[in-house]
Amino acid sequence: MKSFKYAFFEGKVIDLENAKISIMTNALQYGTGVFGGIRGYYDNEGKTLSIFRIRDHYKRFLSSIKLMGCAFPYTLDQLVEIHIDLAKKNSPTCNSYFRPFAYVGNTSLGPNLHNVTLDYALYMIPLEEYMPLGKGLSLMVSSWRRIGDNSIPARGKFCGAYLNSAFARKEANDNGFDEAILLSEHGHVCEGSAENLFIIRDGVLITPAPSDDILEGITRRTLLQIATDNDIPVIERSIDRSELYAADEVFLSGTGCQLAWVHAIDRRIISNEIGPISSKLRDEYFATVRGKVAKYNDWCTKVSV
Ligand code: PMP
Question: How confident is the model at residue 134 (pLDDT cuts 50, 70, 90)?
Fold first, then answer.
């Protein structure tokens, strides 16, 4: 994967190619880490990178670390500062994706979080589309279930939990679908492998509540706010599998995929083109993340690169 030259690693900015860890690293063996994913949108005219909801992303990152119960040497302000410094140092001229990563860097045997201080790394890559935006997605309901809150809490972005996502995504891809939808152990709809899910029925925007084993997505929160501000009724509640098939519109949201509309689920057609509410939200979202909507400008941190 193409990446930018510099990364933050073990307390300083170095060449990414030198940011290496041992194969004995605990996080590599047991998935004992936390990560994030943050986008920066490049503006060619102003030569700036508009970093979207940077503080909210790092708040969730620190909250995941708190769930793990480990010590971590960086504050929110320090994480933001490291992030902005790295963006300037790499000086991108394209849309970029940042990957913060806190992990158990020791090489001790056993999946132990007791008395552990996490290490920290940050790198960045160029990123345009993560999922195709031109066409509607074809999804399948996975036979794998989302891991419950009392197993590995979905509201934390824990490395090891993504094996669950990878199982579901593989099953979907092996069967010719673009992406999977995971159900909870209770049979309710949760989300995609790395995206939140929304349905629209009779003009109402519906998405699973945070207590339905989902990641509390920043894009999800953004779209709920945009919808509310545009007088689109919003409900956060459990969604049944059959409601997916009955929906007028369905889309996935996430930092990576942004807003990706769904054409079909389990071969039942949802819509043949992007629906009116999805389309409205997507246009507004794209303008928002680029700092073009005055009332949401606080969400954009513009960095001269
Ligand atoms: N759910 C999961 C499981 C994810 O990995 C992601 C990507 N971070 C999302 C939802 C979307 O979250 P966000 O909008 O914060 O990127």
Answer: confident
